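User: Write out your own:

AI:
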Amino acid sequence: MTVPSGRRERKKAATRQKIADTALRLFTERGYDAVGIREVAAEADVAVTTLFSHFASKEALVFEQDQDFEQRLTQAVTGRAPHDPLIPALRREIHALVRHCTADGAAPIWRMIDASPALREYEESMRLRHAESLATAIAADPGLPQTTTACRTISRFAIDAFSLAREAADPEAAVDEIFQMIEAAWAVALPSGSAATGPAGP
C-alpha cells in the first residue's frame, strides 16, 4: 500500500485499513454472503457512512488494494528510467503483484472470490479498468509510438498474465513464460526501426 504523508492522510489510511482488515476477517470466518455492511462497520467501530467514504461497495472491501495495484501498474510505465524497455518493466511489476497475491494466507481469500459470482464480476471489471489505465499510460509515452489497439492489447495481456500466473502451480515461472509471449507480441507491433524491447529474462 502506498504510504500517505501528513497526519490527516495517515489517519484516513489507518481507518481504511482497519475497515478492510475487519471485513476480510469477518468474510473468511463467516462467509462473504453472511456478513452485511452494517456488521462490518460495527465491528470496525465506524459509522456506515465512514465505511462508504472509503469503499464504494461491499465487493470493494475484498479488493482494498485495487487503487494501489492500478497505480503500481501505471507507474511501471511512467516511472521507469529513460530508455528502460517497457515489457521487462511490466514483467517486474507483475512478478511483484503475483508474489503479493500468492503469499501465505491469501488462498482463503481467493477461494472466497472464486465462490462468489458478485466478487468474480467485480474482479473482472477491476481487471478491465486496470488494463485501460495501463493502456492509457503506454499510449501517452512518446517513446512508445504505438496504435491504440496495440497499447490496449499489450495491457490486456499483462493484466491476464497476473490472473493466469496466480492460478499456476509455479506462479513465478508462469509469469516468465507468459511474458516471453508478450515480448514477442510487442516486438511484432513495434514500428520498423524502433528500439529493442529489452532482455526477456528477469
The two ends are 24 Å apart (CA to CA). The first helix runs from residue 7 to 30. The chain has a mean pLDDT of 88.
